[in-house]
Amino acid sequence: MENPFKEILNYEKLPLNFKEKVMKDISLVKLTIDMADLFMVQYPNTIGSFLDTDTTNK
After folding, report:
1. Distance between CA atoms of 41 and 33, rounded to whole angstroms?
2. Distance CA 24, CA 30 (A)
3. Hey, CA dihedral for 2, 3, 5, 11, is it positive or negative?
4. Which tens digit of pLDDT belongs to each residue from 8-58?
5. Which of 2, 10, 13, 52 lies at 20 to 30 Å from 35 by C-alpha?
């Protein structure tokens, strides 16, 4: 099986708008992951700690 990446022409340059689009897509994915982490992991933990009534360990 041949490596398809060896078939890419090294001397051709991609247009700048292609690089910008890829960077924007990566930023959008990172933002989505950060928002999911905030609202699915950290926010419930914070609310849980505020509502925790067990004061024996404090």
Report:
1. 11
2. 10
3. negative
4. 766 677 788 988 999 999 999 999 999 988 888 887 777 777 777 666 655
5. 52
